[in-house]
Amino acid sequence: MMNEIKFYEPNDAFGFLSNLASAPMIVEGLEWPSSEHYYQAQKFNDPQLQRLVRQAPSGDEAFRLSREYAQCVKPDWLQVREQVMRYAVAEKFGQNPYYAYQLVATGEQVLTEHSHKDSFWGDGGDGRGRNELGKILMAVRSDLSEQEPYNLITYVDSAKLPTQFGMFQMNGFIERATGKEHLALVYGKLDSSEPVLIRLHSECLTGDALFSARCDCGFQLAKAMQNIVEKGSGVILYLRQEGRGIGLLNKIRAYHLQDDGADTVEANERLGFAADMRDYTFCKGMLGHLNIDSVNLMTNNPRKVNALIKAGINIAERVPLQEGNNPHNEGYLKTKADKLGHMFAAEFIN
């Protein structure tokens, strides 16, 4: 079956689906190393046995202990076990967002615990088992996919992207609210324990691909990629928000007005648009999928800083990105500073 994901061991592909996967969760003030620890401990009414299972060094050991003390299992266990499992799995993904993003990213695929040892929770190894764990996982996935931030984006796929700066991993997403396609270009191994160097770069066909000198976009993109490679890791979110959100053809119209003397803000407003139409809320979903909680943001734009803070993204540091000043964009950069509040060093625009 092409749309089926089979899982079992926590170190295998899609091992995060296994109850044995390390996924700390706190229930009633106690920390459980995995949903397996919690589930197995609930078989007992004895607090000492529950503690013994909770402190087991692995999920496998928690399972073994539950078998060792099988004579102490509470009498109604078979009647309540499914309810306990549903709760354990929901808490696992509710308290471990990175796993939740991965679960939602499985889309509509059938999730199957492929175990020849278990024909109740798993498929029995031959596909004839009940697969009750898989059913619970799919129900939790359905619930999460309708909740923010998991409903902001849909992850599509990833592939290598060799560039003049280095090898990036290109991740594709669809913004659910608009249907727009966005990219996350990841370089190196990301460390979620420290702020990740990132750039939110709105698509600029003229600057990025056609080498236009009337803006600083292409220069900034190249410098941001260079900075990330030099640091050893980081992310470019390449966002399909051409012309500060007005689109490519309206951007051409705005350029025409600028050719006739309007500045970049006046041109947008004459066309009936705000100076900046972009929305960055969905970026929280992209960063969450990459397990990024805190960022060092390469930008000169205070609106980006404020928008990400409003979206719940922790900005540890703003990193200036001042590139591309030339005779064709002097007025453009000055308008950015004077009317949009961009933070440039005085010597950069004078």
From TrEMBL:
Record-listed Zn(2+) binding positions: C204, C215, C217
GO biological process, alphabetically ordered: riboflavin biosynthetic process
CDD domains the record matches: GTP_cyclohydro2, NADAR
Enzyme class label: hydrolase
Transmembrane segments: none
Keywords on record: GTP-binding, Hydrolase, Metal-binding, Nucleotide-binding, Riboflavin biosynthesis, Zinc
Domain NADAR: residue ranges: 7-144
Cofactor(s) needed by this chain: Zn(2+)
EC number annotated for this UniProt entry: 3.5.4.25
Reaction(s) this enzyme catalyzes, per UniProt: 2,5-diamino-6-hydroxy-4-(5-phosphoribosylamino)-pyrimidine + H2O = 2,5,6-triamino-4-hydroxypyrimidine + D-ribose 5-phosphate; GTP + 4 H2O = 2,5-diamino-6-hydroxy-4-(5-phosphoribosylamino)-pyrimidine + formate + 2 phosphate + 3 H(+); 5-amino-6-(5-phospho-D-ribosylamino)uracil + H2O = 5,6-diaminouracil + D-ribose 5-phosphate
Cofactor binding remark: Binds 1 zinc ion per subunit.
Active-site residues from the entry: D276 (proton acceptor), R278 (nucleophile)
Residue runs in coiled coils: none
Highest taxon in the source lineage: Bacteria
CC per GO annotation: cytosol
Residues that coordinate or bind GTP: R199, L200, H201, S202, E203, Q220, E242, G243, R244, T264, T299, K304
Pathway: Cofactor biosynthesis; riboflavin biosynthesis; 5-amino-6-(D-ribitylamino)uracil from GTP: step 1/4
GO terms assigned for molecular function: GTP binding; GTP cyclohydrolase II activity; zinc ion binding
NCBIfam families in the cross-refs: PRK00393.1, ribA, ribofla_fusion
Function in brief: Catalyzes the conversion of GTP to 2,5-diamino-6-ribosylamino-4(3H)-pyrimidinone 5'-phosphate (DARP), formate and pyrophosphate.
UniProt record similarity statement: Belongs to the GTP cyclohydrolase II family.
Protein name: GTP cyclohydrolase-2
